[in-house]
Amino acid sequence: MDGKNAIVTGGAHGIGYAIAKRFLSDGARVLIADIDEKAGEAACDELSDLGEVRFIAANVAERLDVRNLVANALDAFGDIDILVNNAGISHKADFLELKESDFDRVLGVNLKGVFLCGQSVARHMVEKVENGGDPGCIINISSINAVVALNDQIPYTVSKGGVAQLTRVMALALAPYGIRVNAVGPGSIMTDMLKSVVNDRDARGKILSRTPLGRIGDPAEIAGIVAFLASRDASYMTGQTVYADGGRLPLNYTVPVDS
Protein backbone atom coordinates (compact mmCIF):
# COMPACT_ATOMS: atom_id res chain seq x y z
CA MET A 1 0.00 0.00 0.00
CA ASP A 2 3.00 2.30 -0.33
CA GLY A 3 1.82 5.73 -1.40
CA LYS A 4 -1.89 4.92 -1.10
CA ASN A 5 -4.28 7.26 0.69
CA ALA A 6 -7.09 5.88 2.83
CA ILE A 7 -10.07 7.09 4.84
CA VAL A 8 -11.24 4.90 7.71
CA THR A 9 -14.50 5.96 9.35
CA GLY A 10 -15.06 4.94 12.95
CA GLY A 11 -11.30 4.58 13.18
CA ALA A 12 -10.86 5.62 16.80
CA HIS A 13 -11.87 2.28 18.29
CA GLY A 14 -12.00 -1.47 17.72
CA ILE A 15 -12.04 -2.78 14.17
CA GLY A 16 -11.60 0.68 12.64
CA TYR A 17 -8.51 1.33 14.77
CA ALA A 18 -7.06 -2.05 13.79
CA ILE A 19 -7.68 -1.27 10.10
CA ALA A 20 -5.99 2.11 10.37
CA LYS A 21 -3.03 0.48 12.12
CA ARG A 22 -2.72 -2.23 9.45
CA PHE A 23 -2.92 0.29 6.60
CA LEU A 24 -0.21 2.45 8.17
CA SER A 25 1.98 -0.61 8.73
CA ASP A 26 1.54 -1.46 5.05
CA GLY A 27 2.69 2.00 3.95
CA ALA A 28 -0.54 3.90 3.40
CA ARG A 29 -1.43 7.38 4.61
CA VAL A 30 -4.60 7.32 6.70
CA LEU A 31 -7.27 9.82 7.66
CA ILE A 32 -9.25 8.58 10.65
CA ALA A 33 -12.80 9.92 10.97
CA ASP A 34 -14.80 9.44 14.13
CA ILE A 35 -17.49 11.21 16.12
CA ASP A 36 -15.46 10.62 19.31
CA GLU A 37 -12.98 13.48 19.09
CA LYS A 38 -11.00 12.62 22.22
CA ALA A 39 -10.52 8.99 21.20
CA GLY A 40 -9.74 10.02 17.62
CA GLU A 41 -6.97 12.37 18.70
CA ALA A 42 -5.59 9.69 21.01
CA ALA A 43 -5.63 7.10 18.22
CA CYS A 44 -3.83 9.51 15.93
CA ASP A 45 -1.10 10.06 18.54
CA GLU A 46 -0.73 6.33 19.22
CA LEU A 47 -0.41 5.45 15.53
CA SER A 48 1.76 8.36 14.40
CA ASP A 49 5.00 6.37 14.71
CA LEU A 50 3.75 3.97 12.02
CA GLY A 51 3.23 6.58 9.30
CA GLU A 52 1.28 9.65 8.27
CA VAL A 53 -2.06 9.65 10.04
CA ARG A 54 -4.56 12.43 10.63
CA PHE A 55 -7.87 12.73 12.42
CA ILE A 56 -11.08 14.59 11.72
CA ALA A 57 -14.22 14.63 13.83
CA ALA A 58 -17.20 13.68 11.69
CA ASN A 59 -20.70 12.27 11.95
CA VAL A 60 -21.09 10.15 8.83
CA ALA A 61 -24.87 10.49 9.01
CA GLU A 62 -24.53 14.22 8.28
CA ARG A 63 -24.01 15.22 4.64
CA LEU A 64 -22.02 18.35 5.47
CA ASP A 65 -19.71 16.42 7.79
CA VAL A 66 -19.07 13.92 5.01
CA ARG A 67 -18.36 16.69 2.52
CA ASN A 68 -15.89 18.21 4.98
CA LEU A 69 -14.30 14.80 5.60
CA VAL A 70 -13.64 14.20 1.90
CA ALA A 71 -12.37 17.76 1.40
CA ASN A 72 -9.95 17.33 4.31
CA ALA A 73 -8.64 14.06 2.90
CA LEU A 74 -8.01 15.67 -0.48
CA ASP A 75 -6.35 18.69 1.14
CA ALA A 76 -4.13 16.47 3.26
CA PHE A 77 -3.19 13.78 0.75
CA GLY A 78 -4.23 15.11 -2.66
CA ASP A 79 -6.07 11.88 -3.48
CA ILE A 80 -8.23 9.11 -2.02
CA ASP A 81 -7.44 5.54 -3.07
CA ILE A 82 -9.28 3.59 -0.39
CA LEU A 83 -12.41 4.20 1.65
CA VAL A 84 -13.34 1.94 4.54
CA ASN A 85 -16.90 2.51 5.77
CA ASN A 86 -16.54 1.15 9.28
CA ALA A 87 -18.46 3.60 11.50
CA GLY A 88 -21.34 1.88 13.22
CA ILE A 89 -23.53 1.96 16.31
CA SER A 90 -26.13 -0.33 17.88
CA HIS A 91 -29.20 -0.01 20.08
CA LYS A 92 -30.73 -2.81 22.11
CA ALA A 93 -34.51 -2.86 22.49
CA ASP A 94 -37.44 -5.22 22.21
CA PHE A 95 -39.21 -4.95 18.86
CA LEU A 96 -42.47 -3.81 20.47
CA GLU A 97 -40.69 -1.13 22.51
CA LEU A 98 -38.20 0.20 19.92
CA LYS A 99 -38.49 3.96 19.40
CA GLU A 100 -38.61 5.42 15.92
CA SER A 101 -35.87 7.88 16.84
CA ASP A 102 -33.50 5.06 17.83
CA PHE A 103 -34.28 3.14 14.65
CA ASP A 104 -33.53 6.25 12.58
CA ARG A 105 -30.36 7.04 14.54
CA VAL A 106 -28.80 3.61 13.98
CA LEU A 107 -29.74 3.43 10.30
CA GLY A 108 -28.47 6.99 9.87
CA VAL A 109 -24.94 6.00 10.88
CA ASN A 110 -24.79 2.36 9.77
CA LEU A 111 -26.53 2.58 6.39
CA LYS A 112 -27.02 6.19 5.34
CA GLY A 113 -23.45 6.93 6.43
CA VAL A 114 -22.13 4.22 4.11
CA PHE A 115 -24.17 5.70 1.27
CA LEU A 116 -23.09 9.29 1.91
CA CYS A 117 -19.39 8.50 2.31
CA GLY A 118 -19.42 5.99 -0.55
CA GLN A 119 -21.12 8.37 -2.95
CA SER A 120 -18.91 11.33 -2.07
CA VAL A 121 -15.64 9.40 -2.37
CA ALA A 122 -16.84 7.55 -5.49
CA ARG A 123 -17.46 10.86 -7.24
CA HIS A 124 -13.81 11.76 -6.71
CA MET A 125 -12.65 8.31 -7.81
CA VAL A 126 -14.75 8.44 -11.00
CA GLU A 127 -13.39 11.87 -11.87
CA LYS A 128 -9.86 10.57 -11.33
CA VAL A 129 -10.47 7.60 -13.63
CA GLU A 130 -11.97 9.85 -16.32
CA ASN A 131 -8.78 11.91 -16.16
CA GLY A 132 -6.61 8.84 -16.65
CA GLY A 133 -5.93 7.94 -13.03
CA ASP A 134 -6.09 4.58 -11.33
CA PRO A 135 -9.40 3.38 -9.87
CA GLY A 136 -9.68 3.08 -6.13
CA CYS A 137 -11.68 0.74 -3.94
CA ILE A 138 -14.33 0.93 -1.24
CA ILE A 139 -14.72 -1.57 1.59
CA ASN A 140 -17.83 -1.60 3.78
CA ILE A 141 -17.98 -3.24 7.19
CA SER A 142 -21.16 -5.29 7.37
CA SER A 143 -21.81 -8.14 9.84
CA ILE A 144 -22.99 -11.72 9.97
CA ASN A 145 -26.20 -10.06 11.13
CA ALA A 146 -26.77 -9.20 7.49
CA VAL A 147 -27.69 -12.89 7.23
CA VAL A 148 -28.82 -13.96 10.70
CA ALA A 149 -30.96 -11.83 13.01
CA LEU A 150 -30.98 -10.64 16.61
CA ASN A 151 -34.47 -9.96 17.93
CA ASP A 152 -33.29 -7.23 20.33
CA GLN A 153 -30.98 -5.50 17.83
CA ILE A 154 -33.53 -4.59 15.18
CA PRO A 155 -32.01 -1.43 13.64
CA TYR A 156 -28.48 -2.87 13.73
CA THR A 157 -29.56 -6.08 12.03
CA VAL A 158 -31.61 -4.23 9.41
CA SER A 159 -28.79 -1.76 8.73
CA LYS A 160 -26.21 -4.49 8.17
CA GLY A 161 -28.50 -6.29 5.76
CA GLY A 162 -28.79 -2.98 3.95
CA VAL A 163 -25.01 -2.59 3.87
CA ALA A 164 -24.63 -5.99 2.20
CA GLN A 165 -27.12 -5.04 -0.50
CA LEU A 166 -25.73 -1.51 -0.87
CA THR A 167 -22.31 -3.08 -1.43
CA ARG A 168 -23.70 -5.03 -4.39
CA VAL A 169 -25.44 -1.96 -5.83
CA MET A 170 -22.34 0.21 -5.48
CA ALA A 171 -20.17 -2.48 -7.04
CA LEU A 172 -22.40 -2.71 -10.13
CA ALA A 173 -22.67 1.07 -10.47
CA LEU A 174 -18.92 1.64 -10.22
CA ALA A 175 -17.66 -1.43 -12.12
CA PRO A 176 -17.54 0.45 -15.46
CA TYR A 177 -14.87 2.68 -13.90
CA GLY A 178 -12.87 -0.22 -12.48
CA ILE A 179 -13.71 0.85 -8.92
CA ARG A 180 -14.18 -2.19 -6.70
CA VAL A 181 -16.63 -2.33 -3.79
CA ASN A 182 -16.60 -5.20 -1.30
CA ALA A 183 -17.59 -5.80 2.31
CA VAL A 184 -16.48 -7.74 5.35
CA GLY A 185 -19.03 -9.34 7.68
CA PRO A 186 -17.45 -9.99 11.07
CA GLY A 187 -18.83 -12.37 13.64
CA SER A 188 -18.02 -12.03 17.35
CA ILE A 189 -14.97 -9.76 17.55
CA MET A 190 -13.35 -8.49 20.75
CA THR A 191 -14.36 -4.83 20.52
CA ASP A 192 -15.68 -2.48 23.20
CA MET A 193 -19.22 -3.56 22.25
CA LEU A 194 -18.42 -7.17 23.11
CA LYS A 195 -16.15 -6.72 26.12
CA SER A 196 -19.05 -5.87 28.40
CA VAL A 197 -20.75 -9.12 27.37
CA VAL A 198 -17.88 -11.60 27.53
CA ASN A 199 -17.19 -10.80 31.18
CA ASP A 200 -20.51 -12.54 31.85
CA ARG A 201 -19.77 -16.28 32.05
CA ASP A 202 -23.13 -17.35 30.62
CA ALA A 203 -23.00 -14.81 27.81
CA ARG A 204 -19.46 -15.84 26.87
CA GLY A 205 -20.48 -19.49 26.87
CA LYS A 206 -23.38 -18.72 24.56
CA ILE A 207 -21.09 -16.90 22.12
CA LEU A 208 -18.52 -19.71 22.08
CA SER A 209 -21.19 -22.40 21.76
CA ARG A 210 -22.11 -21.06 18.33
CA THR A 211 -18.50 -20.50 17.21
CA PRO A 212 -16.89 -23.67 15.84
CA LEU A 213 -13.35 -22.26 16.10
CA GLY A 214 -13.99 -21.91 19.82
CA ARG A 215 -12.75 -18.37 20.35
CA ILE A 216 -13.67 -14.74 19.86
CA GLY A 217 -12.02 -12.99 16.94
CA ASP A 218 -9.46 -10.21 17.15
CA PRO A 219 -9.92 -6.86 15.36
CA ALA A 220 -6.55 -7.39 13.65
CA GLU A 221 -7.99 -10.45 11.91
CA ILE A 222 -10.68 -8.31 10.30
CA ALA A 223 -8.05 -5.69 9.41
CA GLY A 224 -6.10 -8.37 7.55
CA ILE A 225 -9.11 -9.19 5.37
CA VAL A 226 -9.72 -5.51 4.68
CA ALA A 227 -6.06 -5.11 3.69
CA PHE A 228 -6.44 -8.02 1.27
CA LEU A 229 -9.58 -6.53 -0.30
CA ALA A 230 -7.76 -3.22 -0.74
CA SER A 231 -4.78 -4.89 -2.40
CA ARG A 232 -4.04 -5.94 -5.98
CA ASP A 233 -4.50 -9.55 -4.88
CA ALA A 234 -8.26 -8.87 -4.80
CA SER A 235 -8.30 -7.10 -8.18
CA TYR A 236 -11.01 -9.39 -9.62
CA MET A 237 -13.31 -9.19 -6.59
CA THR A 238 -16.22 -6.80 -6.41
CA GLY A 239 -19.72 -6.92 -4.96
CA GLN A 240 -18.72 -9.57 -2.43
CA THR A 241 -19.14 -9.83 1.33
CA VAL A 242 -16.48 -11.90 3.07
CA TYR A 243 -17.78 -13.34 6.33
CA ALA A 244 -15.21 -13.83 9.09
CA ASP A 245 -17.10 -15.46 11.93
CA GLY A 246 -15.16 -18.45 13.23
CA GLY A 247 -17.50 -20.79 11.34
CA ARG A 248 -20.76 -19.50 12.84
CA LEU A 249 -22.83 -19.05 9.68
CA PRO A 250 -22.55 -22.66 8.45
CA LEU A 251 -23.41 -23.98 11.91
CA ASN A 252 -26.83 -25.51 12.56
CA TYR A 253 -26.08 -26.81 16.04
CA THR A 254 -24.20 -25.66 19.15
CA VAL A 255 -20.79 -26.92 20.15
CA PRO A 256 -19.66 -27.95 23.66
CA VAL A 257 -17.83 -25.29 25.65
CA ASP A 258 -15.53 -25.71 28.63
CA SER A 259 -17.10 -23.90 31.58
TrEMBL record:
The keyword Calcium does not apply. CDD domains: SDR_c. The keyword Oxidoreductase applies. It holds the Pfam family adh_short_C2. Keywords: Oxidoreductase. PANTHER family: 3-OXOACYL-[ACYL-CARRIER-PROTEIN] REDUCTASE, SHORT-CHAIN DEHYDROGENASES/REDUCTASES FAMILY MEMBER. Belongs to the short-chain dehydrogenases/reductases (SDR) family. This is SDR family NAD(P)-dependent oxidoreductase. It comes from Hoeflea poritis. The lineage of its organism: Bacteria, Pseudomonadati, Pseudomonadota, Alphaproteobacteria, Hyphomicrobiales.
